[in-house]
Amino acid sequence: MYRRIEQLAVATLFALALLVQHSGATEQPRTCYTCEGINCQRTSIMKEQKCLNSLDYCVTVFSKFTVVQKGCSLEVPIELRRRCDANTVECHKCNTDRCNNLGQPNYLCLQCDSSNDANCANNVSALTPMRCSSPTATNSYCFVRYDGGVTTRGCSTTLADQRSCYANANCLLCSPGDFKGCNSVDFQPGTRALRL
Ligand SMILES: *[C@@H]1O[C@H](CO)[C@@H](O)[C@H](O)[C@H]1NC(C)=O
């Protein structure tokens, strides 16, 4: 009930702001990816919703690095939306259609392939870790993989990718929470240097 009243109040404020700023201009409501709880870890389900309020925007709410909710901000439960209202790293807000597809702002990995950037193999200090897409796995990892003389570094965001890397002695997973761009490390191919 309280939530409903708050949403109405926010919607009214938005509506007033719209009147003042656009004096009647028609704004298309956003379309956002949406998921809730454990369904955010199901790769086969990629649902979308059209926001009820034409001035609403998209969010992804995280618990540490794990996605716990996606959707239109006003349709996210208030206790989760607090992470967005307080501008914490556990919320990604954005304002274009289907934009809520990124990982937590600290989920940063080097993303390169030595077949088109030689620095990826032997000069990683020249590269900047970049934000990953939103994970469907509970854990978020970066990886380094050697494959027939080619070095690949990137984000490991799905359980299938993480399992296949873990099963491959030429592939190493590391946690982005430990330090930025953890996959700048190298190891002797065939002898994965670190274990999870
Ligand atoms: C490493 O990258 C930097 C910046 O791009 C470049 O100036 C330097 O020459 C590179 N070093 C090697 C050994 O390739």
From TrEMBL:
Residues 31-100, 109-183 form the DUF753 domain. It comes from the Eukaryota. Keywords: Signal. Pfam families: DUF753. Residues 1-25 form the signal peptide. PANTHER family: DUF753 DOMAIN-CONTAINING PROTEIN-RELATED, GH09876P-RELATED. This is (Mediterranean fruit fly) hypothetical protein.
